[in-house]
Amino acid sequence: MAKDSELWNFICDGPFVPTKNLGNPLVAIPKTRKELNNADRKAIEKNFCAKKILVCGIGPDEYNRILACHSAKEIWEALQIAHEGTTQVKQSKICMLTTEYELFRMQDDESIQEMHTRFTSIINELHSLGETIPRNKLVRKILTVLPKPGHFVKDFPLLKKDQYKNNSDKAAKRNMFLTDASIKNTPLTIS
């Protein structure tokens, strides 16, 4: 773990440059290769190791983007800009996705599964840009965009006809039963 965190430091902070102090007001100047000691060489190797890890983890198209980079930090920054954009682009993406989230509605010809997939895609993109929405707000949003319970009758007119037919059959049977029961339970009166 310590090795990985050291490599990450080289990626975030930039390469290690061994220096020596010279002059009356001390000024740090880079050491020549002959002046390097073992600790300096190990730190320089870690620079190269961090760069190697980044280069080996990308494809040929990405490699062309970072070909001119000299350090792991430069590579990382080039990849960030290529995939996330500059800070201004990132903020505009967040703004656009937030608006899309706020205006999100289920489309007429869309199934609930398709709607959920589209919603999840928006949320995942926002999350990848560092913008998270609390789970309770996500649930509330989904519940507000779900169709009302009666929409299935509108969507399935045949079901509607069958439902009314079944309901009228049931009502007729119930009425017949009530009529029979009321005849049986009515006391006979002789006039």
Can you put this structure into words, describing what you see?
The structure is a single chain. By secondary structure, this protein is mainly α. The chain has 3 domains: 2-84, no CATH class; 87-147, no CATH class; 153-179. The protein has helices spanning 2-13, 38-56, 60-66, 72-84, 87-102, 112-128, 135-145, 151-155, 157-185, and strands at residues 19-22, 27-30. A hairpin with a 4-residue loop joins β1 and β2. The protein is elongated, with a radius of gyration of 36 Å. The protein starts with a helix and ends in a 6-residue tail after the last helix.
Summed up:
The chain is 68% helix and 4% strand.
Write the layout of secondary structure elements.
Layout: H1 2-13, E1 19-22, E2 27-30, H2 38-56, H3 60-66, H4 72-84, H5 87-102, H6 112-128, H7 135-145, H8 151-155, H9 157-185
Antiparallel strand pairs: 1-2
Beta strand count: 2
Largest sheet: 2 strands, antiparallel
Q: Give the helices and strands as they follow along the chain.
A: HEEHHHHHHHH
Strands in their spatial order, largest beta sheet:
1-2
The number of distinct structural domains comes to 3
Radius of gyration: 36 Å
Shape: elongated
Terminus-to-terminus distance = 104 Å
Average pLDDT reading: 80
Q: Structural class, please?
A: mainly alpha
Low-confidence stretches: 178-184
Helix content: 55-70%
Tags for this model:
single chain, 191 residues, mainly alpha, 3 domains, two-stranded antiparallel sheet, 9 helices, 2 strands, 4% strand, elongated
